[in-house]
Amino acid sequence: MRGVALPPVEVEGPGGIPVVVAARSPDDTVGELAAALGVDPEATVVIDGRAVPRATALVAVGFRRGSRVGAALGDIAPSSTAGRPLVIVVCEAGPGATGPVRLGAGRHVIGRAAPVAVRIDDPAVEPHHGVLDVTVDGAVHFTQLTGRVPCRVDGDVVAAGVAHVVRDGGAITIGASRIRIGRAGELDPVTLALAPTPGDPWRWTVRRPPRRH
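RE: above sequence
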């Protein structure tokens, strides 16, 4: 990283070591970051649990404050979000706010661990906090697996270990974060995504989805 033209960003480097990255321009790449952090040049670079090509610009991969950067210890398992997307999930509020994740039919883990299907970088969230079960017709059920603080579905406390229906456009509160879930194709993914803050691509601004009545 040469010079400083963008705000510095605090991230977690290999081994969990906190580092401050000073990018020169939005064109700085994942490969440049990996080299600066001493990542093996032959290893696959992983950012927030996702394998990322080295030639990709940092601003194009969702790199942000608090991101975890490292190398894969082996082949990365195929994403559990594979298949035809049926629902869109976005963490729209809280310290772990992220852009949209598209899920197909099946069981998908929500938590702080990497990798999980829906990763929430929130200290109040357990590594494997709960699961979303998506049926082939797009119905969604949420089950809390662990955590001392009860989760909420549309404001109602859920019982741990019990599957709860999540309506289309409904919200799940886990820790200090709120997750919004909607049918793929019915909620505009652009409105669900986060937008970089002008002048600071490492800090995102939530674009709230429309509320349907």
